[in-house]
Amino acid sequence: MAEPIFDRLALIGIGLIGSSVARIARAQGDIARFVVANARTEATLARVAELGIADLCEIDPARAVEGADCVMLCAPVGAYAALAAAIGPHLAPGAIVTDVGSTKQSVIRDVGPHLPEGVHFVPGHPMAGTEFSGPDAGFVELFQGRWCLLTPPPGTDTDAVARVQSLWERCGAMVGVMDPAHHDRVVAIVSHLPHLIAFTICGTADDLADETRQEVLQFAASGFRDFTRIAASDPVMWRDVFLNNREALLEMLARFTEDAQAMARAVRWGDAAYIEDKVLRGRKIRQALIDLHQA
Ligand SMILES: NC(=O)c1ccc[n+]([C@@H]2O[C@H](COP(=O)([O-])OP(=O)(O)OC[C@H]3O[C@@H](n4cnc5c(N)ncnc54)[C@H](O)[C@@H]3O)[C@@H](O)[C@H]2O)c1
Ligand SMILES: O=C(O)C(=O)C[C@]1(C(=O)O)C=C[C@@H](O)C=C1
Prior knowledge:
The chain has helices at 16-28, 42-51, 61-64, 80-87, 105-111, 158-170, 180-207, 209-219, 222-231, 235-244, 246-268, 272-294; strands at residues 6-12, 32-38, 56-57, 70-73, 96-99, 120-122, 124-126, 147-150, 174-177. The chain has 295 residues and is of the alpha/beta class.
């Protein structure tokens, strides 16, 4: 077995993502010698203890990070500023602070100012997840073959970036380095807008309840069901994502709305070629994605 990358890894927040990292660290032994789990409630920590996926459960984030050479923030991004303020003074000199948040400019804005001199900051975002949350939702295969995007601020210590990269590679992920503003625009279109559309379409269907509720539930085949899977995601996580990637999300939504209006126009005026062309384009994109993941 390879030497563990870190001595002591503190996971601040231990839901789907944090508990997946904890499970992998436990199963493989090559990520950290000792794993500390922190969560907001005693109930979550009691469950983590029952699952046996951390060496120590600590309710106070400031105590959880003491002596850790790697601290990974795994809470909803709206909680980051307060968490960073709480842990900042307790971080060990030379420690690496990283995270898994779905937005990156807001994380750099909210966390960066609280980190003392000599602590390295390597923001990250694993592009993997499910609609489930909490410590029971994690699993060791979650990051296999998926991307993890790192957005280190200019001048970040290269050894710190390399160690975070190794952590994700040992979790089975492929690692890419990206500018945080670019990251936020990319995820706005491939992740945040699809979620916004899923929440909205389920809400619209629900608003039509009197006419259709029975039919929605009874006859929903995989088209609508696929939207409901995404729409079942955690409300706090997604509230925070939308509010912390506001500009990029609104930009992508505006572009989408324009394209949807063009489609509406084609439907209204019977522009069959336009409709067929757009459906064909969707099919090609789906095929390209399948080919990419099989390559
Ligand atoms: N779910 C996904 O698909 C996914 C994928 C990639 C990245 N992310 C990002 O990972 C992070 C965690 O997401 P998750 O899906 O693991 O969420 P989750 O709801 O499963 O777990 C969140 C954890 O954070 C803790 N927490 C919640 N509010 C807190 C607060 N105010 N202060 C301290 N701790 C708090 C909870 O106790 C829990 O342990 C989020 O920032 C999210 O944007 C999620
Ligand atoms: O697969 C899902 O259910 C997800 O929502 C995962 C997903 C995504 O949109 O792809 C969600 C948010 C993340 O920040 C990264 C991944």
